Amino acid sequence: MFDSIDRQIIVILQQNARTTNADIARQLGMAPSAILERIRKLENRGVIQGYEARLSPKAVGLGLLAFVFIRSDERAGADDTGLRLAEVPEVQEVHHVAGEDCYLAKVRARDPEDLARILRERFGAIPQVRSTRSTIALGTLKESARLAVGQPDEPQVRAAEAGDAA
Fold first, then answer.
1. CATH class in words for 64-136
2. What is the pLDDT of residue 96?
3. Burial 79-103 (b: 16+ CB within 10 A, else e)
4. Where are the domains of the chain?
5. pTM of this prediction?
6. Does residue 17 register a pLDDT over 70?
7. Which of 16, 85, 109, 122 is deepest in the core (most CB within 10 A)?
8. pLDDT(111) > 80
9. By the 8 A CB rule, do 61 and 110 touch?
10. Does residue 78 carry a pLDDT above 90?
């Protein structure tokens, strides 16, 4: 997986992806070239998948957050509907889920009328979509893309590192 230095780099980059290699190197007591090499390896292995700016949904006019459960008519194991849902610009996330529904989508819209338009025009244009069920968020207490990568003294991390050493 990755060692404690990689973990520290990941923690720093998740806090602020604009942190320079030189700043990370200073924090970790390493050479900037060594940090650059580690970051490139993390990117190449797919641990770091990209960098993007986090925008305020309200500031850009997308203050309504809805979670939409979607049922589809596609055969088991197919993901055509999910791929089509992922192409909808207002959809931030699409998850294939177990249970009565097939997919869960996180959708940003201007207001309830805009959400209705998205459901009607965009989701409704996907032939396999049989039904949708929406839940509108009244407020958000936490929203983050950060992952808890753990600390070296946590049991699951020690076990993973022991497995790497074997």
1. alpha beta
2. 95
3. eebbebbeebebbeebeeeeeebbb
4. 1-54, 64-136
5. 0.81
6. yes
7. 85
8. yes
9. yes
10. no
